[in-house]
């Protein structure tokens, strides 16, 4: 079995899966951020004919995780579709597979900047954000959570597509990662074609107010954790 | 002039005879021969050494034809008519040739208009050239493609009589050659009366170039005529017999620095060739350290700022320089200065390459070119020695002509659709007339058309976004003008590695914080590979632009560096060069090694080294592969000596490691150089082989090129790089242009991600096939590895030793100097994480030495 990383956000124990997903065992909750379904066909509209297999590839990844964790609740943390017409372009096989995945469990689409409105035909229920226990789930990380303090909920967000770069033996390794401290966690993008933003970008320093946060890099089999200061800019 | 030549001389009009006489020149035999071939409408390949008046030979037929033209130009609708198109691989060369051509034209008072067209030509002039073309247009393959991709191409090229292809030997070995071949096939269709002249240095297989110059027909071998100019005096080439101790490894030739300086000071003008930018930087820097006489020594390589390069070239042409340290950036091109010595530092790599470099010295045919080879280490002595023999025989080892690439074909197809609508059957016939594509299957052609149209995916659905569509007449045309515009921005086959500008700034104090702006300003020194910078930590020093610089930060697309007082750079960059040792020269090196009676020609220290090897281990014969195993510092080593060049060795090392892993030999890493591969691990491989528990024949079985290769390719960064190049050339994704921001990477699309998805869902997609074909001959050199594995089958000699053998010393020394070869995998992440834990828990207080040991794997 693959080994998993763990993180504690607002005193809640969470599992960081090397596939780029978050699992909350107590709640049987699986979280996926930035699926960017139909990004390929979105580019195709503008004349860049990318291989049209990205949605299938992304959904296959989700299927593996669901088979493994058998969650009761799945949260797609926004930017689940690359654009507002994405759901219409979804191939029928992919749509079937998406609806199959929702069978027997609750599925919540948190809206994002790429997909701001509820849409029909993709199942699930829609929400702008969601609070469960001591954690709040939203697409864009908020600035209020910058400083840990009593009574503030821990925050799980996406949007930024964090990646980190480690240099070892004269070689740079760039991987998607979770970026987090004790009260917030920014999840890696899950979509097959989703790009990444280096955690040494100013956006992260502003969010965490310093470099005092940890990057949990996605390895093939497990998570590798480094302090942000140890990671390198692009 | 010989009788034959004077016979031919009668064909030369009076104006020309008088002009030659006025300069006290005589037309050379090959110049006149080319003229008479042209008169009877024959396409011809001219093979001639530098300095043989090749360019004039190529243009003489055109000048003669145009001088005899009686056309009242003013009565024509189009004022100008294009007669001759000249194509060169370098735009600087096109500009230079135009200048050289103006002179005779002016002196003879010929009514001929000559113009150049390159990426630098102003838009207004380019536009004018379409409507009112000159008689002779000098340009590059990319510009030809652009000119063809427009509806007025038939009008522009309809009158074309001749295409002159310069430095053809250099053009045909790359994808630019494919693009040019396709353009040429198009031109033959537009202007059936067209003939060609190819100008080339001496090559191994002239017939391949002769085929390139004429349209090929199915089942027929069509060849252009061949004219070979008489060679000049034999070159005088020697190997530096150094008084110093020859290094075991490394590429700096630091030991010979004084001797190189001495040679420079005893000659008028010297060209010092090295194989890489960083070698050039190091040598230049070190020469200036001992330059007590302040000789004018300059530096020239492709990464320097263009303005800087032009300055060096001008100073050279004016005879102001005593020496230029340069890379292959000067292998081709502009004739300049009176060079009386060529020094080649490091491995010559190939006989033809060396001959061409030597030819840069002394352009007077009747005097021998002088050249000195300076090997940088012991193996390079063997290589230089083999090269000397090859040069004495005039042996050629230019690479064979390519099979046309599918990604270039896709680009061409889109270009065609941007011009007149095309019929697929007709275009297929046209394309297969181009030599590199004459074996192209119809299925592959159709796949390329399908790719251009809607991506070529098994899962249909992009038809509504198609770039080209078939009309009711069955012809294909672009679906909208934006596609044509996209094509024009992306034309060409040169995909640069990601380069970053190097900017000089003042040193900054703080080393922490995110990559925000620091003191800007300062001048740009040139460009450097992103891959090199990725391996640096702020504070590291390296040599660039002739000085030692300190790496400060990476800010957007720029590398900030500062001056430093350090005298030795901390980070040596890889210095072996990107061209692998040629197969031909490798064969000769193996022959030299296998024949102790030939060792007498080697320097004493090298001969002694080989004699000790003979004593301690084995000297393999020509065809066998020697594999040595020995323990060292708690690890077990396996070293083999295929002599197949670094690229093939990297691939071999990668595959051997995979297999050893599976055999539970617990390999830890490997390092490869031009001659050998060393793998190390925790299990005693030698012992297991001797006990018959492990078979080297099985380890080196060619079947490693099956599943093991496939499995590795799936992850390989080299393969991903090949794919990116193909994706850009074929037009799947657009080129990134300078100024386009990279910091918002989450918005851009990475070809690595596309590669992963495509490989899983449609492994036989045209682009993946194109990328694999590239990898086979390019970065992974699989073809060569495959030939080697077949050659040594059943001929593997195992020698179990107690300690490292003399032959193994050079490759062992490279461990730790170079990054350990391998992919950027989880192993490195795990190591980095572990190192961090150790640091934190105080395990690694012994610090540096421990770290170094781990790095070197010793």
What are the defining features of this structure?
heterodimer; A: 234 residues; alpha/beta; 5 helices; globular; B: 858 residues; 7-stranded parallel sheet; 6-stranded parallel sheet; 34 helices; 41% helix; disordered C terminus
Task: State mean pLDDT of chain B (0 to 100 scale).
Answer: 84
* Large-scale geometry of chain A: globular
Rg of chain A, Å, rounded: 17 Å
User: How far from one another are the termini of chain A?
Assistant: 33 Å
Query: How big a fraction of the residues of chain B is strand?
Result: 5-15%
- Give unreliable regions of chain A as ranges: none
Shape of chain B: globular
What's a quick, concise take on this entry?
Chain A is α/β, with parallel strands linked by helices and 234 residues long. Helix content of chain A is 19%, strand content 31%. The radius of gyration of chain B is 29 Å and the shape is globular.
Notes on the protein architecture:
The complex is a heterodimer of chains A (234) and B (858). Helix content of chain A is 19%, strand content 31%. With 234 residues, chain A is an alpha/beta fold. In chain A, the strands form 2 sheets. In chain A, strands 8, 9, 10, 11, 12, 13, 14, 15 and 16 form a 9-stranded mixed sheet that branches. In chain A, helix 2 (54-69) packs parallel to helix 4. The longest helix of chain A is centred in the first third of the chain and has 16 residues, at 54-69. Chain A is globular. The termini of chain B are far apart. At the A-B interface, helix 1, helix 2, strand 11, strand 12 and strand 14 of A face helix 20, helix 29 and helix 33 of B.
Topology at a glance:
The complex is a heterodimer of chains A (234) and B (858).
Chain A: E1 5-9, E2 12-16, E3 22-24, E4 29-32, H1 39-45, H2 54-69, E5 73-76, H3 86-89, H4 92-101, E6 106-110, E7 125-127, E8 129-132, E9 135-138, E10 154-157, E11 162-168, E12 171-180, E13 184-186, E14 197-198, H5 202-208, E15 214-218, E16 223-227
Parallel strand pairs in A: 4-5, 5-6, 6-7, 9-10, 10-13, 11-14
Antiparallel strand pairs in A: 1-2, 2-3, 3-4, 8-9, 11-12, 12-13, 12-15, 15-16
Helix pairs in contact in A: 2-4
Chain B: H1 3-9, H2 14-22, H3 29-39, E1 44-47, H4 54-67, E2 84-87, H5 91-107, E3 114-117, H6 123-131, E4 136-139, H7 141-148, H8 153-157, E5 162-165, H9 168-171, H10 175-190, E6 195-200, H11 206-212, E7 225-228, E8 236-239, H12 257-265, E9 270-273, H13 277-289, E10 297-300, H14 306-317, E11 323-326, E12 341-345, H15 351-358, E13 370-374, H16 378-393, H17 406-418, H18 424-431, H19 442-454, E14 468-470, E15 476-478, H20 481-490, E16 499-504, E17 524-529, H21 530-534, E18 541-544, E19 547-555, E20 558-563, H22 583-594, H23 604-616, E21 625-632, E22 635-640, H24 646-662, E23 667-672, E24 677-681, H25 685-690, H26 696-699, H27 707-715, H28 717-730, H29 751-761, H30 766-777, H31 782-791, E25 796-800, H32 809-814, H33 826-841, H34 848-856
Parallel strand pairs in B: 1-6, 1-7, 2-4, 2-5, 3-4, 5-6, 8-13, 9-11, 9-12, 10-11, 12-13, 16-20, 21-25
Antiparallel strand pairs in B: 14-15, 16-17, 18-19, 19-20, 21-22, 22-24, 23-24
Helix pairs in contact in B: 1-3, 3-4, 7-10, 15-16, 16-22, 17-19, 17-20, 17-28, 24-31, 28-30
